[in-house]
Amino acid sequence: MIDISISEFLSLPESEKITHIKGQAVLYAQQFDREQLDYLCELSDACRKLRKSKDGADFMATLLSDKTALNFFVQPSSRTFLSFNMAQSILGMRRMSLRDAKISSISKGETLADSIRTFLSYVDMIIMRHSDADAGALAYWIAAKSHRSELVNGKKVPLPIISGGSGTKQHPTQSLLDIYTLEKSLEEVGGIDGKKIMLVGDLKRGRTVRSLSYLMKNYKDVELYFAAPEVYQMEEDILQFCDDNGIKYKKIDSIKEGLEEVDAVYMTRIQDEWDGLGAGAGHVKASDAFTFKKEYLDLMKPHCCLMHPLPKRDEIDVELDYIDDKRIVYWRQERNGMWMRVALIAKLFGVDKDIIARLAETE
Fold first, then answer.
1. Nearest CA to 284 among 295, 306, 268, 308?
2. Which of 87, 95, 282, 287 lies deepest, with the highest CB count within 10 Å?
3. pLDDT in tens, 3-47
4. Domain 6-167+336-358 sits in which CATH superfamily?
5. pTM for this structure?
6. How many CB atoms lie within 10 A of CB 111?
C-alpha cells in the first residue's frame, strides 16, 4: 500500500517513484536492472518456443483466461496497441479497448483519476498510452489505493499498470523489446556489452531513444552516438544520466560520421506531432545527413543491425524494406515486441514459471 498522497507521489523524481512501484507496474525504463532484463529476454525466448506447438499454444492460452485487460490508448498507435492485444490473446486474456477520449466520460469533464478508478472496477490490468507524462504514475497510485488487488506468488499486489508510451519522455516496453532485439542481433559477438550504438533523428522528443538510453546503465562499456541536428539533439537530463552512470556518449553531425564504428543504428522519425503538425503539409522531412541510404549498408560492420521503432517516413530509403540483409532488423523488431510483452505480462501475473516449466517438459 502506498502511504503518500497523490500530489506528493507525482512530485517525486522518477528515481524515487520507482522505489514505491517495486516491480508492480511498468512505467519507467530505468526501473529495470540487468538481472531483470536478462530474465525477460530468456522468458521471451521461452514463450516463443513454447507457442510453436499447438499443445504449447493451447497451454499458454489457459494461463490468464480468467483475467481481463484494458488497452487505454488515447494517443494514436498501431504497433504498440496490436502488440499488446496479441500478447494478451496468447495468454488467453479477455480484452477491452478505449482509444478515443471523446467517446468516454472524460469528454464530459470526468477527471482522468476518476476514469481510471472506474476502469479498475471492470478489468485486471490497464495498458495506457497518454500524452500526459504523469498519467501512468497517476494510474499506479490509484491502483495501489484501490479496493481490488491481484494475488501474485502468494502476495497481494495492485492491479498492474503498464505504460504504452507516456508524453515525450518514456516508452518502457519499447526499450525492453529494443534490448531483446539488440541481444538477439548481437548474440554472435557477445551481446550488448562493449558495443557502440548510434541513435539517430529526433532524440529530443523521441521517447523510445530516451528509454533505451536509460537502460544502457545495465551494460558494460557501452558507448552511445547521438546523431541529430542540434534542434533535435538529446536533452540534458539524459546526458546527465549518462554522466552519472558512466555511460560514454558523443554527439555527431551525421550518420556517416560514425557508421563504420558502431554495432547498431537506431533510426527515428521527426516527432512533429508534438508541434501540432501531422503527416500532411506540416510534415518535417529528415535532413540528408540523418537519412539512412541504401549505400550505407556497405559501410556497416557484418554484425551491425539497423533498427527503427516505427512508424517510419522518409528517414530510411524505402528500398531497404525489401532487401534480404540480416542486418535490417526493424520488421523482426516488431515481432520481438510482441514476445517481450507476452513475457512481461506473464511475469506481472506470476505465470512465468509455468511457462518455463512447461517448456522444460517438452524439450
1. 268
2. 87
3. 899 999 999 999 999 999 988 899 999 999 999 999 999 999 999
4. Aspartate/ornithine carbamoyltransferase (3.40.50.1370)
5. 0.93
6. 11
